Amino acid sequence: MAAPHGEPVPGGEQDPATSGAAAPEGSPRRRPRTAAPPLAPLAPWVMPSLIAGLSVLLLVIVFGFIVGRDDDPAQAAATTATEAAAPLPELPRGGRTLLPGRRVVSFAGVPQDPELGALGVGSLRSAVRRLKKQAVPYSRKTRPTQPALQLISTIAHADAGRSGRYSERQSSSVIARHLREARRAKALLILDIQPGKSSFVTETRRLRRWLREPDVAIAYDPEWRVEKDGDVPGQVIGSVRASELQRSLDEVAKIVRQYRLPKKLVLVHRFTENMVQGLETIRVPSELQTVMSIDGVGDRANKLAKYRQLTRDLPSAWRPGFKVFYKEDAEAGGLMTPAQVMNLRPRPDVVLYE
């Protein structure tokens, strides 16, 4: 706090030169302040020259900042060349385009229930060994096979559950384990979606972290896509509208572009005409390779009729796939051999076993 005017600051000293009191005898006296001599007036040319010099300096600094942002042209060219030379991600057995160079042979299922497919029968590693053996008859010198594990990553249920989605999502640890086994075998991992009352778009976005991988594909199963109140997966045959499927494909294509991935395989399951509504209106992005898997079940005659029906007017952007049900087809007397599958016309690019 400042002392009142004219009073000394407690505990401090007052300058005798300014207080007007005589300094005590023997005490050092502070040298009184004297006024500084007046500055000589500047010459008329000094100020304009100073302003001009500062302006030039400022321009140099700004120019250097702009040029520095783009670096030296030679260095920028070298950086671009390095990026261009960086190896692009490839598919498990090499290359960046799967079809038509290879024929995909896949086991589908979940680890929680062997009734949902061959992939869930026994241990995962033993299932991979069986898959490799099953793929052998489909291999040709001119067209080798690409094994694939089709994990149902979103499983439809008849119960709504706490989420109300009528579906259950696989944990990240389950997906990671299947990806590790797929990589051991140089196989693809296909994440299959049975959305229940969720949407394919929502479930695709949820799988984004996995779809960033070059060896992970995706499959959509509209049989298990229901929207109306009261409809329950498994009690009614679901379907998907072209608009929803288009948005889903666009989401996958965006990921492929962003991470410079190989062309991404996308499967769509179908066994009725109405299961995919407006298929002819869908624009397939160039980053994708789309396959329509015909999932007819039963004896051989019915499976062949269904395959012919649903591949007859298949748009050119879609390649044919064929599904074999080990248990259901065998019970109906129609379990087809690999030779019989290869005699289908058009010959399927993807063969799924469930």
What does this structure look like?
The chain has 354 residues and is an alpha/beta fold. It has one domain (105-353): TIM Barrel, CATH 3.20.20. 33% of the residues lie in helices and 18% in strands. It is built from eleven helices and eleven strands. The protein has helices at 16-19, 46-70, 73-85, 124-135, 172-184, 200-206, 208-211, 242-258, 300-311, 326-331, 338-342, and strands spanning 103-109, 145-156, 167-169, 188-193, 216-220, 240-241, 264-270, 276-277, 288-294, 318-324, 350-353. Strands 1-2-4-5-7-9-10-11 form an eight-stranded parallel barrel, surrounded by five helices. A two-stranded parallel ribbon has the order 6-8. Strand 9, helix 9 and strand 10 form a beta-alpha-beta unit. Helix 6 packs parallel to helix 8 (242-258). The relative contact order is 0.10.
